[in-house]
Amino acid sequence: MGSPSAVPVAALSLALCALLAAVSRAQQLSPAFYDGSCPHVDDTARRVIQEARVADPRILASLVRLQFHDCFVNGCDGSLLLDDSPAVRSEKNAAPNNNSARGFPVVDDIKAALEHACPGIVSCADILALAAEISVELAGGPYWRVMLGRRDATTANFEGADNLPGPTDALGVLREKFASLGLDDTDFVALQGAHTIGRAQCRFVQDRLAEQPDPALDREFLSALRQFCPASAGVDERLNNLDPATPDAFDNSYYVNILRNRGLLRSDQAMLSVPDGAAAATAPIVGRFADSEADFFRSFATAMIKMGNIAPLTGDMGEVRRHCRVVNQS
Ligand code: HEM
Ligand SMILES: *[C@@H]1O[C@H](CO)[C@@H](O)[C@H](O)[C@H]1NC(C)=O
C-alpha cells in the first residue's frame, strides 16, 4: 500500500480538484464577469436605455418583462431574442409574446453598442439581465448587482414560450410554474410587483368585465374598465396602466391597489382574492409589500437574482451571439 500508488492518487485528486474548480467556475455567474473584458458594459447599456426612454417611456417596463419571458423558457439563455429562421421557430410568435413582448430593437441597439466597444464578448442573455436591472433602477426601483456570465442558446423553444404564465391561469397553476423553477411564494409575489410599471392590452382584462364580472373587482374600477375596454370589436389592443395609481414609477402601490381590489389582471388580484383559502400563502405577502416598500424592494431584488440564475449556459456551452436575433454563422 502507499508509495507506488501514492503519486498517481495525489495527481489524480489534484486533477479532480482542478476539474471541480473548473466546473464550479463554469457554472457560477458573477457580477465581475466582464470586469477585464468589457469594463463599461453597464454604462454602455444604460446610455442606450436612457436614449430610448426619451421617445418611449414604456421601454423600461418592456425590458423588465423580456427577462422574465427569457428566463422562464429554457432558462436565461437569450432564446427569446431569436427570430424565425429555417432552423428556429421563434418564441416571439408564441401566444404570450405575439403582439405583446416588445423592446427588441432596443436590445439590438445595446448589442450593437457593446459589439462596438468589446466585440464578441457580452452575451444577449446577459444584456437582458442588465437591461432589466437598469430599467427598474431608472423607474425608481431597487438596485442590485447583476450576475453575469451567461451564454446564448442556439435554439428556441416555441412550446415552452406558449406555456409561460398567463393572466387566466389559476393561482395554483401560477405558483406551480414559479415553484418548478425554484421560485418560492415570496419570489412569486415579489416578481409580479414588476406590474407596478407598464401596460396591458384590453384583451387581457376583458374576460373579467363580462355580464358576470370577476367578483374580486372594485365596482368603480370595474365600470371604468368597462368604459375603456368595451367588449365591442376594435379596442383589444388599447393600453391600460398595470398600476393606475403611479403608472411609470417603480413603487409598492401595485400591492396597495390589490388590497383595494384594483389589481388589473386576474392573475394580479388572485394573489389576494381567490376564494376558499387558496390565496392563504400569498395574501399575507401582498399585505407585507403594501405595508413596506423597503421589504418589497429587497424581496424583488433577491427574486430577480434568483430568476436570473435559472439554468444559464456557462463555460463552453452555447455561444456569444454577434446579433441577438440570429445564431452565429447562419
Ligand atoms: C403570474 C405571472 C405573470 C403573468 C400572468 C403576467 C402577465 C402579463 C400580461 C398579460 C401583461 C400585459 C401584456 C400586454 O398587454 O401586451 C404583462 C405585462 C408586463 N409584465 Fe407580466 N405577468 C406575470 C409576471 C411578470 C413578471 C415575473 C415580470 C417581471 C419580473 C413581469 C413584468 C411585466 C411588465 C413590466 C409588463 C409591462 C410590459 C410593457 O408595458 O411592455 N410580469 N404581464
Ligand atoms: C401573431 O399575430 C399575427 C398578427 O396578429 C397573426 O397573424 C399570427 O397568426 C400570430 N402568430 C401566431 C403564431 O399565432
Automatic annotation (TrEMBL):
<dbReference type="GO" id="GO:0042744">
    <property type="term" value="P:hydrogen peroxide catabolic process"/>
</dbReference>
<feature type="disulfide bond">
    <location>
        <begin position="38"/>
        <end position="118"/>
    </location>
</feature>
<comment type="similarity">
    <text>Belongs to the peroxidase family. Classical plant (class III) peroxidase subfamily.</text>
</comment>
<feature type="domain" description="Plant heme peroxidase family profile">
    <location>
        <begin position="28"/>
        <end position="328"/>
    </location>
</feature>
<dbReference type="GO" id="GO:0005576">
    <property type="term" value="C:extracellular region"/>
</dbReference>
<dbReference type="GO" id="GO:0004601">
    <property type="term" value="F:peroxidase activity"/>
</dbReference>
<comment type="function">
    <text>Removal of H(2)O(2), oxidation of toxic reductants, biosynthesis and degradation of lignin, suberization, auxin catabolism, response to environmental stresses such as wounding, pathogen attack and oxidative stress.</text>
</comment>
<keyword id="KW-0873">Pyrrolidone carboxylic acid</keyword>
<dbReference type="InterPro" id="IPR000823">
    <property type="entry name" value="Peroxidase_pln"/>
</dbReference>
<dbReference type="InterPro" id="IPR002016">
    <property type="entry name" value="Haem_peroxidase"/>
</dbReference>
<keyword id="KW-0349">Heme</keyword>
<feature type="binding site">
    <location>
        <position position="73"/>
    </location>
    <ligand>
        <name>Ca(2+) 1</name>
    </ligand>
</feature>
<dbReference type="InterPro" id="IPR033905">
    <property type="entry name" value="Secretory_peroxidase"/>
</dbReference>
<feature type="binding site" description="axial binding residue">
    <location>
        <position position="195"/>
    </location>
    <ligand>
        <name>heme b</name>
    </ligand>
</feature>
<dbReference type="GO" id="GO:0140825">
    <property type="term" value="F:lactoperoxidase activity"/>
</dbReference>
<dbReference type="InterPro" id="IPR010255">
    <property type="entry name" value="Haem_peroxidase_sf"/>
</dbReference>
<dbReference type="Pfam" id="PF00141">
    <property type="entry name" value="peroxidase"/>
</dbReference>
<feature type="binding site">
    <location>
        <position position="196"/>
    </location>
    <ligand>
        <name>Ca(2+) 2</name>
    </ligand>
</feature>
<feature type="binding site">
    <location>
        <position position="251"/>
    </location>
    <ligand>
        <name>Ca(2+) 2</name>
    </ligand>
</feature>
<feature type="binding site">
    <location>
        <position position="165"/>
    </location>
    <ligand>
        <name>substrate</name>
    </ligand>
</feature>
<dbReference type="GO" id="GO:0046872">
    <property type="term" value="F:metal ion binding"/>
</dbReference>
<feature type="binding site">
    <location>
        <position position="246"/>
    </location>
    <ligand>
        <name>Ca(2+) 2</name>
    </ligand>
</feature>
<feature type="signal peptide">
    <location>
        <begin position="1"/>
        <end position="26"/>
    </location>
</feature>
<keyword id="KW-0479">Metal-binding</keyword>
<feature type="binding site">
    <location>
        <position position="77"/>
    </location>
    <ligand>
        <name>Ca(2+) 1</name>
    </ligand>
</feature>
<keyword id="KW-0575">Peroxidase</keyword>
<protein>
    <recommendedName>
        <fullName>Peroxidase</fullName>
        <ecNumber>1.11.1.7</ecNumber>
    </recommendedName>
</protein>
<feature type="active site" description="Proton acceptor">
    <location>
        <position position="69"/>
    </location>
</feature>
<feature type="disulfide bond">
    <location>
        <begin position="124"/>
        <end position="324"/>
    </location>
</feature>
<dbReference type="GO" id="GO:0020037">
    <property type="term" value="F:heme binding"/>
</dbReference>
<keyword id="KW-1015">Disulfide bond</keyword>
<feature type="binding site">
    <location>
        <position position="70"/>
    </location>
    <ligand>
        <name>Ca(2+) 1</name>
    </ligand>
</feature>
<keyword id="KW-0408">Iron</keyword>
<feature type="disulfide bond">
    <location>
        <begin position="71"/>
        <end position="76"/>
    </location>
</feature>
<feature type="disulfide bond">
    <location>
        <begin position="202"/>
        <end position="229"/>
    </location>
</feature>
<keyword id="KW-0376">Hydrogen peroxide</keyword>
<feature type="binding site">
    <location>
        <position position="91"/>
    </location>
    <ligand>
        <name>Ca(2+) 1</name>
    </ligand>
</feature>
<keyword id="KW-0106">Calcium</keyword>
<feature type="binding site">
    <location>
        <position position="243"/>
    </location>
    <ligand>
        <name>Ca(2+) 2</name>
    </ligand>
</feature>
<feature type="site" description="Transition state stabilizer">
    <location>
        <position position="65"/>
    </location>
</feature>
<dbReference type="GO" id="GO:0009505">
    <property type="term" value="C:plant-type cell wall"/>
</dbReference>
<keyword id="KW-0732">Signal</keyword>
